[in-house]
From TrEMBL:
Subunit organization: Homodimer.
Pathway the protein acts in: Carbohydrate metabolism; galactose metabolism
Catalytic activity: UDP-alpha-D-glucose = UDP-alpha-D-galactose
Enzyme class: isomerase
Record family assignment: Belongs to the NAD(P)-dependent epimerase/dehydratase family.
Superkingdom in the source lineage: Bacteria
Keywords recorded for this protein, A-Z: Carbohydrate metabolism, Isomerase, NAD
UniProt keyword Isomerase, yes or no: yes
Disulfide bond as UniProt keyword: no
Cofactor list: NAD(+)
EC number: 5.1.3.2
Protein name: UDP-glucose 4-epimerase
């Protein structure tokens, strides 16, 4: 049976698509290639270049393929950008998810896996976010994803569609064989930006905020390896195939690293002592965001294999070197 993966040519989607193909699933990728790349589909998966804004196309596409399972990655994902361009986020994320759910409801989709984000929590008390805790996003990116979760919950109930919404923490790293990774040249994510500085593609790395109430004054995040994150999707799919009920799960390791710690590991692994400057806080950034990570282990039997910052950064570094060499 064919599985639809929207945004499957993107950073996260392409890792999941490869793991699905390796597990024997037949995958159809629907992607507008705005940030994704056909080269990221390394197992010869079918790629349909299309936009979720195009509802007529989507309807015909669903009628043609008869999907029962959908994994939805297509989205805009840069939290700081969403503060200055909120409509882009409500359009690409919330409205396009509505378009997709409309097609799913009409065409009898039964299982749905949604790329959600830890940004739905905003600033949780003591920096630890649990699935049944409060959601209170502090940027439009988080709001756009939370609205999508709510639509999914209601559409799921009304139309017999079971789902798993996975709330990702800070996804980083790359395929250990460096076949795919994060491509966007105008990166904003800390690990990628630091690798680019080590490669001489940037003059320096700015630390956004050194006066946070954390041990070294810089922001703390739960960085998770892309391979572990991708494996969580296959575990979620297996769960739904076994008849599992709709649920929301954090995908993180349950521990955090500071901006300074990340930069030090990038310097150590790359062997480059690139310049680092201290800058003001970035709007929309919580001081600390770390997962309560028990639920996914209990419910899906998922356990991480790459949960060490040096492994994450080592794989990111190899990928960035390869990307730069190919330019
Ligand atoms: O040049 C930089 C870039 C980042 N940071 C800091 O590094 C930390 C991580 O920032 P990232 O930009 O790498 O990631 P975010 O935490 O902002 O957001 C990411 O994680 C979120 C959930 O935690 C969402 O999933 C979102 O899509 C994704 O962008 C923050 O404290 C940030 O202030 C810097 O100091 N300098």
């Amino acid at each position: 049976m064919k599985i639809l993966v929207t945004g499957g040519a993107g950073y996260i989607g392409s890792h999941v698509v490869r793991q699905l193909s390796e597990a024997g699933y037949q995958v159809v990728v629907y992607d507008n290639l705005s940030t994704g790349s056909a080269d990221a589909l390394v197992c010869g998966e079918q790629l349909v270049v299309g936009d979720l804004a195009d509802t007529a196309r989507l309807d015909a596409f669903f009628a043609e393929h008869g999907f029962r399972t959908v994994l939805h990655f297509a989205a805009s994902i840069v939290a700081p950008e969403s503060v200055t361009a909120p409509l882009k986020y409500y359009t690409n994320n919330t409205r396009n998810t509505l378009n997709l759910l409309t097609a799913c409801a009409k065409h009898g989709v039964e299982r749905f896996i949604f790329s959600s984000t830890a940004a739905v929590y905003g600033m949780p008390e003591n920096g630890l976010a649990a699935e049944d805790g409060a959601t209170s996003p502090i940027n439009p990116y988080g709001t756009s994803k939370l609205m999508s979760e709510w639509m999914l919950r209601d559409v799921g109930l009304a139309h017999g569609l079971r789902y798993v919404a996975l709330r990702y923490f800070n996804v980083a790293g790359a395929d250990p064989l460096a076949r795919m990774g994060q491509r966007t040249p105008e990166a904003t994510h800390l690990i990628k930006v630091s690798c680019q500085a080590a490669l001489g593609l940037r003059d320096q790395v700015a630390i956004f905020g050194t006066d946070y109430p954390t041990p070294d004054g810089t922001g703390i995040r739960d960085y998770i390896h892309i391979e572990d994150l991708a494996a969580a999707h296959l575990a979620a799919l297996g769960y739904l195939e076994r008849g599992g009920e709709s649920t929301v799960l954090n995908v993180g390791y349950g521990r955090g690293e500071s901006v300074r710690e990340v930069i030090e590991v990038v310097k150590r692994i790359s062997g480059v002592d690139f310049p680092v400057v201290e800058a003001p806080r970035r709007p929309g950034d919580p001081a600390m965001l770390v997962a309560r990570a028990e639920r996914i282990r209990l419910l899906l039997g998922w356990s991480p294999r790459y949960d060490d910052l040096a492994t994450i950064i080592g794989d990111a570094w190899r990928w960035e070197q390869k990307l730069t060499a190919a330019r």
